[in-house]
Design goal:
alpha+beta; Arc Repressor Mutant, subunit A; 4 domains; four-stranded mixed sheet; 11 strands; about 10% strand
Length: about 475
């Protein structure tokens, strides 16, 4: 192996998954070998030996780690991940079969501590949180599918009382179950904002590109061109202090599915399903309440869709915000379609896939950025990269899928996972807003590098996505 012992040891100390498979770590004092990403207690450098393969480590008399399963990784299998993914699929399809989180843990076959650890690692959630989300999603389907009484909807989704169902549904959807059922009928609908919601911060973010052709902010009125279950439409939101009134405009008729998609878009934009209070409690325990001072209710704003996030995660790499906005605008104006009064829908992956890198050069794209963008679009158009499947994947599976795409590195993948897929424990490594924020928060002499960023951000787990949102604001004036 050409890598030095000290470099491999540094990657092992950092638990860096990017080096999995490039070498394996043997711990001579315990007689085991691990992946570089293993989170077990780290041994001293003199007690470590590195191997090019699992076979070489076994030949030296070592046995595989039961925590990171290096042999499974080496042969492309991950039975622990697959078992957790299977359990989550079962919970999501039939949440009513699980009385509570203890039932989920028992079904997993793991001990309580290990089960919670695996859910945190692979889904960025506790079993209780994932079960609640599955119940909410099931109740949404039941409310739109027919005229079942609310008590039967609550029971069918697994809620133990109608009052609990009503409270949790309203908290995560910004409307009552009865109000959600009315989405099946035409007309505007209203989404309530949580008490103390930092609306000024939301509006500042929504208006960051005043020349955008996919979205427009005029005072407290926001419009965005979106794809609602295959139907292009303009979503118009009138913000007030405690609510957002939503209306839709489209050339084709909009049904319950499209209106439910518009509701999901607004809920994601507002971040109603994010645990802002839990993050603030954690930061306060750490003695870091100054991180959320003045904006305890801040959420991470979700993109209107996964394609939007994918395009931005490539276009926005290593350039400043105004130039990235300009590049995105030129792509959309030349390959998208105008919907209403200067608002354009995003181009389809197929439209981008038909381009060549030379087509993007007059729009000031570098050749490399053009290749990355077109290459990703061609994967989507061919069905090799299924954007619709990503939100339901485990965080681990989604990260592996996205890292395999040429042009998507740790920053792009983590940005996409938290902004578009809604994962709660991501860090966009290398992000200047994050490193500048950490420098201010911890009073550092210089901005931290990638390894230092990982260490500093680890204290905020499992809320690192929300920590990122606050770090982006810490050096900015109040809006």
């Amino acid at each position: 192996m050409r890598l030095t012992h000290s470099h491999m040891y540094s990657r092992f100390l950092a638990s860096d998954p990017a080096w999995n498979g490039r070498f394996f770590t043997g711990v001579l004092t315990t007689g085991i070998y691990c992946l570089p990403s293993c989170h077990a207690r780290k041994p001293k450098a003199e007690n470590v030996k590195f191997f090019p393969s699992c076979d070489a480590a076994r030949a030296a008399g070592l046995r595989p780690c039961r925590k990171c399963h290096p042999d499974d990784f080496s042969r492309g299998a991950d039975p622990v991940l697959e078992s957790i993914e299977g359990l989550v699929a079962e919970v999501r399809s039939s949440p009513g079969r699980f009385s509570d989180a203890r039932a989920v843990v028992r079904r997993s076959g793991f001990g309580t501590t290990r089960c919670f650890e695996l859910f945190r690692q692979h889904f960025h959630a506790t079993p209780a949180d994932l079960l609640l989300r599955a119940r909410i999603e099931a109740s949404r389907r039941l409310l739109l599918e027919g005229g079942l009484p609310l008590a039967e909807v609550a029971a069918g989704a697994g809620f133990d009382s109608l009052s609990s169902f009503h409270e949790r549904f309203r908290e995560m959807n910004g409307m009552t179950p009865s109000g959600y059922r009315k989405l099946a009928a035409p007309g505007p609908f209203c989404v309530d904002l949580p008490p103390g919601y930092p609306l000024a911060h939301l509006l500042r973010t929504l208006g960051r590109d005043p020349h955008s052709v996919t979205e427009r902010l005029d005072g407290t009125t926001y419009e965005t061109a979106s794809d609602l279950e295959g139907t292009p439409a303009v979503v118009r939101i009138e913000f007030a202090r405690d609510a957002a009134s939503v209306s839709l405009e489209a050339r084709a008729a909009l049904g319950a599915a499209q209106r439910a998609a518009a509701h999901r878009l607004v809920v994601g934009m507002l971040g109603l399903d994010q645990d802002a209070a839990g993050f603030c409690r954690l930061a306060r325990r750490l003695g870091l309440a100054r991180l959320f001072a003045g904006r305890p209710g801040l959420r991470l704003i979700r993109t209107p869709g996964v394609l939007d996030g994918l395009l931005w995660s490539i276009i926005g790499q290593q350039i400043n915000l105004p130039f990235a906005c300009l590049l995105k605008r030129r792509l959309i104006e030349n390959t998208g379609a105008e919907l209403s009064r200067g608002l354009y829908s995003l181009p389809t992956p197929e439209a981008i896939a038909r381009l060549e890198p030379s087509d993007l050069r007059p729009w000031q794209y570098s050749r490399q950025k053009a290749e990355y963008l077109i290459g990703a679009a061609r994967l989507v158009a061919a069905g090799t990269l299924d954007l619709a499947a990503l939100p339901a994947m485990s965080a681990t599976r989604a990260e592996r899928t996205l890292l395999s795409v040429r042009g998507l590195g740790p920053w792009s993948v983590n940005y996409l996972m938290m902004r578009s897929l809604g994962f709660a424990d991501c860090v966009p490594l290398g992000d200047t807003g994050v490193t500048s924020g950490l420098k201010t928060l911890f009073k550092l002499e210089e901005r931290p590098d990638a390894d230092a960023t990982k260490r500093l951000m680890s204290v905020f787990s499992p809320h690192r996505s929300l920590a990122t949102a606050h770090l982006w604001q810490i050096n900015r004036p109040e809006p």
